[in-house]
Amino acid sequence: MNEKTGTITHLLRAFQGGDDQAFSKLIELFHPQLEEVAKACLAGDGMHDFMQTQSLVQEYFLRLSATNQLQPYDSKAFRSFAYKGMRRIVIDKARRQRARIKTVPPTEENDAMDHDPSFSDVDRLWLEQALERLDEAMPGMGVLAQLKYLGYSKVEIASILEMSPTRVVREWNKCKLFLKALLVN
């Protein structure tokens, strides 16, 4: 274990023990990395209309500090945990937007065209449901698909999930078949 990983693991445990200073230090250490994850969560499908990268990272940290219930005990698990948390925030915002679209009647101030759901919102919600079904059918593979969706390489995914790159390719092929079957149905 390198020095930085040891520090992160120590800070995670301290935060779980109620140390608020440890949480502040975690924010400093992970902020640049979490900005990249946030950019990936928001990229490519119009989610920047709902929120900016900084606001996603800040909202994630606010929710995390409010719960004080971190489960992972190492930095790899924390990154995965952070991605899931940010993705949940984005999905929640997309759902609220879709609900608002359904409940706000068109008026002069809020023209119906301004509230028409974009295909990307539907895509993101479909993807969330598909990944949940994938994880139910093949436990643990939802995370692999999420990492692949974020653009991680097979070597990076192998490192995060602690499996060989060959196994990552094999499992990703299974995930693709499952997701394609869902898409067809």
UniProtKB/TrEMBL annotation:
Gene3D superfamilies, alphabetized: 1.10.1740.10, Winged helix-like DNA-binding domain superfamily/Winged helix DNA-binding domain (1.10.10.10)
Signal peptide: none
Domain RNA polymerase sigma-70 ECF-like HTH per the UniProt entry, residue ranges: 7-173
Keyword set includes Transcription: yes
Domain of life the protein comes from: Bacteria
Keywords, ordered alphabetically: Sigma factor, Transcription, Transcription regulation
A GO molecular-function annotation: sigma factor activity
Pfam families in the record: Sigma70_ECF
Biological processes annotated in GO: DNA-templated transcription initiation
Record-linked NCBIfam families: sigma70-ECF
Annotated protein name in UniProt: Sigma-70 family RNA polymerase sigma factor
